[in-house]
Amino acid sequence: MTITLYYLDNSRAMRVLWAAIELGLADQLQVKSYARVEGKKAVPEMQKESGFKLGKSPFLIDDDGQGGRVEVFESVACIEYLHDRYGSQSSLLPASPAWSQKSRVQSWLAFCETPMTHALPIIYLRWHMPESQASLLAEMEDKLSANVCKDLDLYEDAILASEKEHGAENGYLAGGQISLADLANAFTAEYIIVKKVGTANRTWPAVERWLKRLEARPAYRKALEMGGLHDFSLLDLERQSHA
Amino acid sequence: MTITLYYLDNSRAMRVLWAAIELGLADQLQVKSYARVEGKKAVPEMQKESGFKLGKSPFLIDDDGQGGRVEVFESVACIEYLHDRYGSQSSLLPASPAWSQKSRVQSWLAFCETPMTHALPIIYLRWHMPESQASLLAEMEDKLSANVCKDLDLYEDAILASEKEHGAENGYLAGGQISLADLANAFTAEYIIVKKVGTANRTWPAVERWLKRLEARPAYRKALEMGGLHDFSLLDLERQSHA
């Protein structure tokens, strides 16, 4: 049995690949990586070869065990599918009826696109604003940064509270151990911090500690090897700046 | 047993309220509605009374059946929680091992924020761009509309294909019957069409037929009665324009 993952460079596909490896699926995965044109759109081959009309990544293809085909799009749905089908032994999502813990993980899992919703308008502005409007761009970025900073504050508070309750090395988003919530939100936090999108020159030390703990995991490092480009790792950034 | 839903006017809380009613939970729901300040931020009372630090809506509080408290944020997580806990008899999400059908519903469910990610930058521009920059705003809106239109095209194709396969009255996003995917994405499509955000003067007839089918459902109409403001119903818009 092979699960095929269409992986666009520097995309949310990293969330899915990392989750798959954490779930012990590395040997069953076939990863097809694709480049971006000028750092933006996917090369047209991805849409053609995946057959997914929107041409987006991640896109996952699996067989359903009954001769049929499973197609999953959107990174959160891909993660949920992999856990649902192959993760019965995993502790990455608490099982019913631990409703309080389970809904906490699922809330944070769903949250992973919220800071992106606040950060991407800034990216789109940078792409599309005429060069002559540099001061207007700066002014708009400033206004749009407020919500991004609020979201990062929410991460910071959650990690700090968790480090306090569970020990310095066990601060995760939804409690004292890693969950699907961390795998999904790490991409968001890395992206925003490394690209400095809406960060208003602020830093979030607990978020950085949390990211570095996550990035040191063998499954994360293996995902970097197996997948396409992922230019947002804080650990790699540190290495480059010391080189 | 009471489930409390914090409902901000004209927000994604509509998704959750509607889903709760479809799941037969109307009598167990306590809905607390809050206004927006100048059509934007929530009144400060909502954050204070809900105790949810980010002050966002929807926010759901339930008891866990063991003397503990369940707190859920993000509309998709709220919907999943309600279905997971109270929807075992519902057909709104196919059960395992119908992986192909289940992952289709979950992909579309996760997709519900994707068009918002493309539409909200336009809303933020409208809020924050200086009035003197009207022509630049129009130019930027034009550029940002491409992705919104692509997303709406994806809805249109899915509904058309489903109407063709399952009959004119049974065209839903993830197959021939209503699912959680429709409940979540209706808000997105209503919002974009009614506010004309990134629509580039185009129309999507199958999407409009689908929305009107959904809005005619007793549970949707009941949600309009029980919740706060929801100014995006196409049926109500039609009534107003005929009045």
UniProtKB/TrEMBL annotation, chains A, B:
GO terms for molecular function: transferase activity. Residues 98-243 form the GST C-terminal domain. It comes from the Eukaryota. The keyword Ribonucleoprotein does not apply. CDD domains: GST_N_GTT1_like. Pfam families: GST_C. The keyword Methyltransferase does not apply. Residues 1-90 form the GST N-terminal domain. InterPro entries: Glutathione-S-Trfase_C-like (IPR010987), Glutathione-S-Trfase_C_sf (IPR036282), Glutathione_S-Trfase (IPR040079), Glutathione_S-Trfase_N (IPR004045), GST_C (IPR004046), Thioredoxin-like_sf (IPR036249). Keywords: Transferase. Belongs to the GST superfamily. This is Glutathione S-transferase. It comes from Jaminaea rosea.
